[in-house]
């Protein structure tokens, strides 16, 4: 039995366990068991498995948990959330709309869904406490907004991505078609608008009304704590604000986003905004390790050639299709499905060059396929394997995978139809 076959068998068993065994074994333990099985069978090199624990996103997650907990420890969060609740006159939809729009705005400056969600969710949790609403009614809306609207408007993150795509085109010597600065906005804006509307008006109708099991997220937990002294109160929200600004301008100051968040977490702990036990609890290691396990599974799938196998099959199918919209649908659906089970940045990095080569061989315009690939890879919300924002969202809302499917199937269909229909119209292949 080849390693590819073994890897796929372990992968399928893992998915089944995620769906049916979480009542007995946690998602975190299941993902680490799967990662260990990949390593023992040779599908994942031990060195690669170890690297997953030091992955920058894992450090970023743990650090942002602490920074967010530092903000949540201050009274500012309660005051802001109380103000929003008052001006909304008790309307949950208005409160949700405010946080969804805030999430969407931040996603244009910070090209990381987990960071964006990490910034917003402590504020949203406080609002839920103020309104006596379970976070499960709000967190998926914020999560899908953070994941699906990232890098849309022509600001710093989109400009960087534009340069990256143009670099791909030049590297593969296919400059007959060049990427324009506004192409990302032109292609992704309809999807952004659809996601925002779905997050506010549709998703809450399907969201479960589930009490939060994690003590880090229990309603009323913060109100039982003694208020911070004035110095630590200022440090709590000043650190949060500076970390946010540092992430937006990380390329300008010569630091990566994980370094900014890590420094912020150290400030929170060193100044005593959080106690030692509060800091350890705030790290939410179960969610971090869930991401580590998911990263290991995705690395094994990539290393064994699963993406190459699918890509080759895709090329064979495309040449047989004559309808541009059907081709676009296929180009969207394949990475969309894959990115639910593999790290989205990895799928995007694999399929973007693949789509450029496919279009070059056919003399087709690659801009549409590239943008379909980008949107498909950045709308992963069905499993915790694609992006660290999903396990964070699952922890904040106490969701199961069944909950994700129940809330996500309508957005998935709408995003697919809107993205394929719009992009294949404004950027046809021929």
Describe this structure in words.
There is one protein chain. The protein is mostly helical. It has helices at 3-20, 27-40, 46-53, 56-73, 75-87, 92-107, 113-131, 139-148, 156-171, 183-206, 230-248, 250-253, 257-270, 276-282, 285-303, 306-318, 324-338, 344-362, 367-377, 389-397, 401-426. Helix 6 packs parallel to helix 8 (139-148). Residues 214-223 have low confidence and may be disordered.
Shape: globular
Q: Percent helix among the residues?
A: over 70%
Q: Helix count, per DSSP?
A: 21
Q: Which percent band covers the strand fraction? A: under 5%
Biggest sheet details:
none
Structural class: mainly alpha
Distance between the termini: 43 Å
What's the total count of β strands? 0
What series of H and E elements makes up the topology? HHHHHHHHHHHHHHHHHHHHH
Radius of gyration: 21 Å
Mean pLDDT: 83
- Low-confidence runs of at least 5 consecutive residues: 214-223
What does this entry show, briefly?
The protein is an all-alpha fold. It is built from 21 helices and no strands. Helix 3 (46-53) packs antiparallel against helix 15 and helix 4 runs antiparallel to helix 15.
Jot down its keywords:
73% helix; single chain; globular; 430 residues; 0% strand; mainly alpha
């Amino acid at each position: 039995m080849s390693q590819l076959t073994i890897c796929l068998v372990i992968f399928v068993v893992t998915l089944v366990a995620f769906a049916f065994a979480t009542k007995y074994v946690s998602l975190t333990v299941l993902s680490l068991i799967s990662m260990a099985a990949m390593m023992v069978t040779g599908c994942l090199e031990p060195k690669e498995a170890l690297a997953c624990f030091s992955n920058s996103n894992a450090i970023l997650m743990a650090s942002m948990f602490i920074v967010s907990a530092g903000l949540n420890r201050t009274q500012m969060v309660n005051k802001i959330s109380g103000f929003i609740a008052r001006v909304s006159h008790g309307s949950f939809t208005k409160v949700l709309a405010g946080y969804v729009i805030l999430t969407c705005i931040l996603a244009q400056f910070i090209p990381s869904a987990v960071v964006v969600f990490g910034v917003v969710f402590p504020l949203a949790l406080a609002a839920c406490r103020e309104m006596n609403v379970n976070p499960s009614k709000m967190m998926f809306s914020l999560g899908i907004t953070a994941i699906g609207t990232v890098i849309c408007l022509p600001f710093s993150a989109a400009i960087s991505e534009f340069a990256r795509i143009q670099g791909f085109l030049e590297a593969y010597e296919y400059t007959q078609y060049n990427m324009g600065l506004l192409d990302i906005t032109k292609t992704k804006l309809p999807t952004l608008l659809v996601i925002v509307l779905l997050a506010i008006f549709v998703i809450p109708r399907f969201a479960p009304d589930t009490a939060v099991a994690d003590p880090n997220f229990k309603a009323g937990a913060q109100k039982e704590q003694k208020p911070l002294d004035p110095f630590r109160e200022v440090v709590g929200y000043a650190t949060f604000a500076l970390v946010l600004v540092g992430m937006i301008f990380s390329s300008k100051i010569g630091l990566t986003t994980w370094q900014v968040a890590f420094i912020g977490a150290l400030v929170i702990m060193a100044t005593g905004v959080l106690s030692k036990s509060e800091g350890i609890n705030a790290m939410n290691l179960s969610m971090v390790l869930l991401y580590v396990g998911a990263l290991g599974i995705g690395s094994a799938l990539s290393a064994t050639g699963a993406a190459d196998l699918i890509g080759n099959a895709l090329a064979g199918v495309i040449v047989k299709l004559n309808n541009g919209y059907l081709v676009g649908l296929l180009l969207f659906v394949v990475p969309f499905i894959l990115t639910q089970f593999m790290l989205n940045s990895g799928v995007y990095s694999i399929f973007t060059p693949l789509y450029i080569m496919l279009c070059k061989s056919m003399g087709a315009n690659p801009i549409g396929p590239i943008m379909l690939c980008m949107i498909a890879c950045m709308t992963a919300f069905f499993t915790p394997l694609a992006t660290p924002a999903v396990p964070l969202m699952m922890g904040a809302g106490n969701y199961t995978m069944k909950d994700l499917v129940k809330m996500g199937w309508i957005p998935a269909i709408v995003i697919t139809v809107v993205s394929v229909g719009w992009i294949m119209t404004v950027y046809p292949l021929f």
